[in-house]
């Protein structure tokens, strides 16, 4: 329920996507100002376990990172005006952005899969073609994860983060400033991918390419 922002009275519907964590624990979306030490303390996690499980190279974390806290526990609700509320929320409050704020991350803009895991849309494209920055910003991460393969994340001026997965190569590095439409990497099928495409996520706002 926590990972999917549900409660005991929530009704599921056909076609709804649910996040099922691979271990007992807590799913956390990193927000501006967060530190790994504070997150571990709040959710009763172990810093080294968090680093290891999430394949982090150090305690450095960035806005838009998605962390699993192994064996983490939800903070005890606090009582306010006779109502119980959680001491914090794991899921981002989504910032409204204009429909034209983002552009397609590929030149063909051919969608192969609509909204799925982590607010993502897949765009199919020939392997080796460019992946484009959907909006201007600063490159936060480039790296590897077992599902997304080679990936890049970009922080935009409104604190929204975009993620580009399954890349075959990188053209930018952390700290680089990119303009909308800048080539940032090449289409691939690294990680868990059945064909050449880019897995495009928007973290902190609605994905504009979802029907």
Q: Overview of this structure, please?
A:
It contains two helices and 13 strands. By secondary structure, the chain is mainly beta. It folds into two domains: 1-91, Membrane-bound Lytic Murein Transglycosylase D, Chain A; 110-203, Glucose Permease (Domain IIA). The strands form three sheets. Strands 5, 6, 7, 8, 9, 10, 11, 12 and 13 form a nine-stranded antiparallel sheet that branches. A two-stranded antiparallel sheet has the order 1-2. It is globular and about 50 Å long.
Kindly give the count of domains. 2
CATH T-level fold name of the largest domain:
Glucose Permease (Domain IIA)
Q: Class of the largest domain, according to the CATH hierarchy?
A: Mainly Beta
Number of helices: 2
User: Whole-number radius of gyration?
Assistant: 18 Å
Give, in order, the helices and strands. EHHEEEEEEEEEEEE
Proportion of helical residues? under 10%
Report the oligomer. single chain
Largest sheet composition: 9 strands, antiparallel
Overall number of strands: 13
CATH superfamily of the largest domain: Glucose Permease (Domain IIA)
Name the shape in a single word: globular
Q: Indicate the low-confidence ranges by residue numbers.
A: 84-92
Corresponding CATH architecture of the largest domain: Distorted Sandwich
What would a concise description of this structure say?
It contains two helices and 13 strands. It is mainly β.
Characteristic terms for this protein:
single chain, 211 residues, mainly beta, Membrane-bound Lytic Murein Transglycosylase D, Chain A, Glucose Permease (Domain IIA), nine-stranded antiparallel sheet, 13 strands, 7% helix, 34% strand, globular
